[in-house]
## 1
Amino acid sequence: MSTIICNAPFCQNIRNYNHAWCPAHRWEREKYKVKVYKEVLPLWAKMRCKTHGLLRIDQCSKKANTFICKACNIIYQKKSYNPEKQRENNIKYFLLRKDWRLKKRYNISIKDYEEMLKKQNSSCAICSLTIEQHQKIKGERVHFAVDHCHKTNKVRGLLCYRCNIGLGYFQDNPEITQAATNYLYKN
């Protein structure tokens, strides 16, 4: 009697004479309610480790929406954290991250930011706090906030953290800010 092969595509497993599929595919059909096998690999065959190749479900651990081999995951977890290297990378990529963030949020480059800072004489547009004083208060890596209109997304200027928060609380409404200045002049 010749061996009978499973009916699922790519499968070379031997099946029982009474069934059309091998035990693995029968189990898969029951669990995942697969009606028809198309010319694709099953789910477990799609999980691949870069070093160990194809993985079964019991051989992999899910980490951040990617399947990693359990052996590789243990090695990955044992990698030691190096704070000196992290500090070097933070210094190295600080300006790149800042430029990317400015382009994404406000559609300006870091050169535009520096020009605005020069036009404002390296000080806040409202209270004239210098960048050096601002960095003494908040830390040496903290820069002025980019003030912009939330409706039009147009950049208005650079502000220290206090002025930026104040405008945020007044909801960019000139009537409320005028009422606040009138209140201060009265008292």
## 2
Amino acid sequence: MNMWQHLWPTGSCSSRPRRSLYIPFALLLGLVSSIHALSAHADDFSKVYYDASTDELVVTMIYSGTNPDHAFSLHWGQCKEATDSTASEVEVEVLDNQWEDPARHDFNKIVRFSLTGLPCRPAKVTLRTAPRFIYSLMIPARPVGHP
């Protein structure tokens, strides 16, 4: 039996393959479409900035779901000294409390996060969400009048 007979078990290269050979292809297509659906559901940022008057990080989130009532929180990493020692660096994961909500509609929400507990300043803050959405910005030293 030559190698082509494994692909076309009917014994002839000119005959059509059996239907059972389409099953792995259909499974592969299903897997690819599932991965695409998951990536379409990912949260993202449309705008991020530091508001010095309130000492807050202001993030406009773009997300999908069945309702607009998603709540977002931050999971802070450890402050690290920068290699050039001008500012510290810290990574922050943005978490969605309804991350399993089916992606039926698109929503935008402005979320404000207080930075009064940020121990390292000035700092380069890198926000991360979903598998690959990243945004970095500089947070200055504590504003005058803030603890």
## 3
Amino acid sequence: MTMPTLVRRLVWIAALGATIGGTGLLGPAAPAFAEPAQLDLARYRGKVVYVDFWASWCGPCKQAFPYMAKLSRQYRPQDLVIITINEERQRAPGEAFLRQVQSKLPVAWDSEGTLAKTWQVNELPMTMLFDRQGKPRFRHTGFLSDKTAEYSAQVDALVKER
């Protein structure tokens, strides 16, 4: 098995929430990590996980960041984890974007598009919500500010599930 094939398979396994044994995602003190293969959703078993794919040139992505920040403040870290995944080849525009929207949310830099391919991301932003068992439950393409009540209701329902 070639290295790219192995990485794709590991990312796929992680995307489904299976344990792959990596140290994976960052803790609260480290707001970014470099390699998407480190995305290990199993680390967050028992929590609702909100994963958002974005790019700096995406207008709806810019609108989604304040909403995600609000969700982050609304729920305890024991209940909800928000992970953002940048889909640009160059990191500098994404970093400038994060400064502009004043985001402190965790970021994965998917410059090769590995996660986007694995998760079949064809439009930005694209959001997936995983339940406490790591099962994908909701998927949204685009961000519409008039639908935030619907998005919030889905997050709230998953947080209330035990």
